[in-house]
Write a structure and sequence with these properties.
Elements: H1 4-15, H2 18-27, H3 34-38, E1 42-45, H4 54-65, E2 69-74, H5 85-91, E3 94-96, E4 102-104, H6 110-114, E5 124-129, E6 132-135, H7 136-150, E7 159-161, H8 163-172, H9 179-192, E8 195-200, H10 208-227, E9 233-237, E10 244-246, H11 253-260, E11 265-266, E12 269-270
Parallel strand pairs: 1-2, 1-8, 2-7, 3-10, 8-9
Antiparallel strand pairs: 3-4, 5-6, 11-12
Helix pairs in contact: 2-9, 8-9, 9-10
């Protein structure tokens, strides 16, 4: 589906169908995220960690132009893999600066990168706030605020983490937390309660096609069989330089460079190696 306005109309009509709403609620174990229930018309994007990349800001601008509410639904407990360039970008962000400078340096210590036994957003960075080490999710959230400032945007990011909800939905289906356990819940949620916005053709993502064939499509078919309606998904081609966080128009870039360039040390380890 290409039109957000058409997607909004479909979900609006489905929400008026009390029988369909009840069937979808039952399929979810009556466990609908509070933020989704509270927002009039949620349009959701699902990065692993919410940030301020060009792709995410383009999503937000388009949704706001339609009069709906953009929501980032993160999954900070998901596992890191180098096979997914979007996941790599959370730990090694591309940042565009004034005068054309583009940096791409690791913000996660090498020891963590070699043995990533912690969630992608919960992982520690090389930055500290007082005596506390900043997590990837916190760092990316700070980048998002700077990117919005650079774009002179009034967007207020609304982020909810689905990690615990995914666990509950997987358990409801008798599984440990896995995509096959929770993806039918995602498809049910975005069949009645909101719209899913996703980017196709992510550059370099070696697993995207097989994931959609083995997980996403079967989950959508399962939900259609149960509810009689298809998930409402707005798809876009991945934008050029979509993984870049663009701070090139930020007037105070020089003053904040030290805060966001990751050539710092934690425990004697240089993250720029």
């Amino acid at each position: 589906m290409k039109s957000i306005e058409s997607a909004i109309e479909i979900i609006g009509n489905r929400r008026q169908d009390s029988r369909l709403v009840k069937k979808a609620s039952n399929l979810l174990g009556n466990d609908i995220p509070d933020t989704i229930k509270a927002v009039n018309m949620p349009i959701c994007i699902a990065p692993h960690v919410a940030g301020g990349t060009i792709a995410e800001l383009e999503f937000a601008k388009e949704v706001i132009a339609s009069g709906a509410q953009p929501i980032w639904t993160s999954y900070i407990e998901d596992r890191f893999t180098t096979r997914n360039p979007v996941k790599v970008n959370h730990w090694r962000p591309r940042i565009a600066w004034p005068k054309g400078q583009l940096t791409r340096q690791w913000i996660v210590p090498e020891t963590v990168r070699k043995d990533p036994g912690i969630g992608i957003g919960a992982a520690p960075t090389v930055f500290e706030s007082g005596v506390r080490i900043i997590s990837v999710a916190e760092y990316q959230g700070s980048l998002a605020k700077l990117a919005l400032e650079a774009a002179s945007s009034t967007i207020e990011p609304l982020t909810i983490d689905y990690s615990e909800w995914y666990s509950r939905q997987s358990a409801l289906r008798g599984m440990s937390r896995s995509a096959k356990g929770y993806y039918s819940a995602i498809m049910a949620l975005y069949s009645v309660f909101g719209v899913l916005f996703r980017y196709d053709n992510q550059p370099g993502n070696q697993d995207l096609l097989s994931f959609r064939q083995s997980v996403a499509i079967p989950a959508a078919e399962f939900v259609k069989d149960k509810l009689g309606v298809e998930p409402v998904i707005v798809s876009r081609d991945y934008p050029e330089n979509g993984m870049v966080t663009d701070l090139s128009q930020l007037e105070r870039a020089g003053a904040i460079a030290a805060a966001v360039l990751p050539c710092g040390r934690v425990g004697g380890e240089n993250a720029c190696n």
